[in-house]
Amino acid sequence: MRDTTPLLCRLACAAGILLTTPSSFAQAFDAVRLFGAAPGKDGGTVGGALVAGTEYRGSDQRRTLLVPVLDYQWANGWFAGVTNGVGINLSTSPQWQYGARLVLDMGRSESRSNALRGLGDIDAKAEAGIFANHATEGGLFFSSSARYGSGNEGKGLVVDLGSGYSTQLAPEWRLGLGVAMTLVNAEHMQAYFGITPAQSLGSGYRAYTAGSGVRDVRASAALTHLFNRRLSATLAMSGSSLQGDAKGSPLTGQTSTLSGVLAVAYAF
Q: For the residues 57-75, what does the mean pLDDT come to?
């Protein structure tokens, strides 16, 4: 019988794509997770995720989203999808992934929450980025990525660093644990957490200048059940805590947030 362990491991990881993402999953390209296929093979995942988070990062109001998941990787290293954006993995090693990609920062609409009224919209912007990941045979993994182009003027820089551990509890169950942090430059921080004098007049918030630094830190746990060699479901919980100028922003009603995800994925 053909050994299906590699496919099952990739499927478990694909279902747990939300392991280190913050509450606003639909906008979060914090890491590249290429688990749809082994190096040199075509393959992908399709499914959906029910995400219980907040209206925006720092909000004290809850928001639930149903998010589609579709990602595909070609044998030549190119990939495209909801989770990773569009890019290329230049590594042929199963332990390493590195390359470049293009993603979309969805911005933020002031209509999303009453707390954002008078601040105006942050338009969606394309972000160019690079990434590097490493996984060990013992279940440890390390991820890193950098993206540039977000914010009001398209000059925002976001750097994400993460690590975690995945282990098989039983033939049909896998457990994943992860930690991550995000660093941003002043342009990104000001766009999402700062208040200009004009915004202060329109919203009633005091003016606030936000500088560069650590935006947030996160810790996550995910439990995945493998129904068969292609279909799985994952329940994940993620706790995030704002740091630095993001924590002190007038827009921040809650500095620590607990988010939950129920995801179903099918590997093809």
A: 92
